[in-house]
């Protein structure tokens, strides 16, 4: 049985990743690895356009370039390979330092998502929260969820929300992380959605 995300109407992201970032981050900045369409099912559109966050996106596929140029986005999208991208140069160009609020990490396939995650972390960029798409339901033999969790644990992060899904709870595709010094109590995605919807507030 499909379960509708109770936060769906408050978010443009597929699984309310933007609401998670808004609830966690004091630093209103972001890096989005995997910009895709600049508006539809986009993790950072609301952060950029409606909340005034600073940041940038990275997208490999050129077909989205025209959409970005014609969108009402305030922040840029670099059309480049996130695995080899120079994050430090882009941060300097955008007037940002290496302490960033939110990292959205979602490209295809998950081995590339993991490689891009390692790249930005190993360049010394720190985040308050990270949403990492591992697509476990489709890549169970390689388990990039566990690889990313082990890697991020070594770099000062912990799991905050696990088993993130879209409509089908038995097909988890993402895990969300926060810094280890954050007192966030780890929960599964369904629990997080219920708690956030109880708040009854615009985040």
Record keyword descriptors for this entry.
203 residues, eight-stranded mixed sheet, 30% helix, globular
Nutshell version of this structure?
Helix content is 30%, strand content 22%.
Topology:
Layout lengths: L16 H8 L4 E5 L11 H5 L4 E6 L5 H6 L6 E3 L7 H7 L5 E7 L4 H13 L3 E8 L10 H11 L2 E8 L9 E6 L7 E2 H10 L5
Helix pairs in contact: 5-6
Provide an overview of this structure.
This protein is of the alpha/beta class and 203 residues long. The protein has one domain (8-187): Rossmann fold, CATH 3.40.50. The protein is 30% helix and 22% strand.
Radius of gyration: 16 Å
CATH third-level topology: Rossmann fold
Q: Quick one: overall form?
A: globular
Contiguous runs where pLDDT drops below 50 for at least 5 residues = 1-6
Helix fraction by DSSP (H/I, runs of at least 4): 25-40%
Report the total helices.
7
The CATH homologous superfamily corresponds to Vaccinia Virus protein VP39
- Count of all domains: 1
State the total count of DSSP E strands: 8
Alpha-carbon distance between the two ends: 28 Å
- Average pLDDT score: 91
Q: What order do the strands of the largest sheet run in, or round the barrel if closed? A: 3-2-1-4-5-7-6-8
Q: What is the chain-wise order of helices and strands?
A: HEHEHEHEHEHEEEH
- Biggest sheet character: 8 strands, mixed
Task: Output the CATH class name.
Answer: Alpha Beta
CATH architecture: 3-Layer(aba) Sandwich
